[in-house]
Amino acid sequence: MNSKVSILGLVVIIFGIIALAMGIVFVQQGFAQENWLTQTMASEQITMPDGSGTIVDNEATARAAGDLVREHRHLISPTYGDLLGGGNFDPTNPTQLTYAQAMNIENYLYLAVTAFGVFTVVKATGAFMIVMGLALGTTGYALWRLGRA
C-alpha cells in the first residue's frame, strides 16, 4: 500500500512540475507580448486625437483614443450605411474616405484594447498555474514521504 502512495506522490509531483513550467511560460509570454505591443504602438506615434500629444501605448489611452475617434467619426455620419446613403463606397469621395480611415484607426485601437485584456488574462492564468504547480508539488512530496514512511 505504501508503494502505491509513493508512486501517486511522484505522479502528483510530475503534474506539479508541468503546471509550474506552463505557468512560467504563460506569465513570460504575457509580459513579452504586452511589451512588444507597447513598443510597437509607441513607434507608430499615434497620439490622442484631442490635441494633447499623448502617445497611445497602453490599454487606457487606446480605449480613450478609440472612443474619441468613434465620437469624431459619428460627427461625419452616425453609421456607415447613412454615410453611403444606399450607394456604394466611393474612394474618390473625401468624406467617405475619411470615414473609412477613421473606422480603420478605431478598429486598430480597440484591437489593442482587446490584446491588452488578453495579456492580463494570460498572465493571471500563468500565475494561477504557478500556484497550482507549487501546491501539487507540495502535496505530491507529502504523499511520497507518506508512502516511504
Describe this structure as you would to a colleague.
The chain is mainly alpha-helical and 149 residues long. It has one domain (2-148). The chain is built from four helices and no strands. The protein has helices spanning 2-44, 59-76, 80-84, 94-148. Helix 1 (2-44) packs antiparallel against helix 4 and helix 2 packs antiparallel against helix 4. The longest helix has 55 residues, at 94-148. It starts with a helix and ends with a helix.
Q: Quick summary of this structure?
A:
With 149 residues, the chain is mainly α.
Give the topology.
Elements: H1 2-44, H2 59-76, H3 80-84, H4 94-148
Q: What order do the SSEs take from the amino end to the carboxyl end, as H and E?
A: HHHH
Share in helix: over 70%
Total number of beta strands: 0
Largest β sheet strand count, sense and barrel closure: none
Low-confidence stretches: none
Keywords:
single chain; 149 residues; mainly alpha; 4 helices; 81% helix; 0% strand; elongated
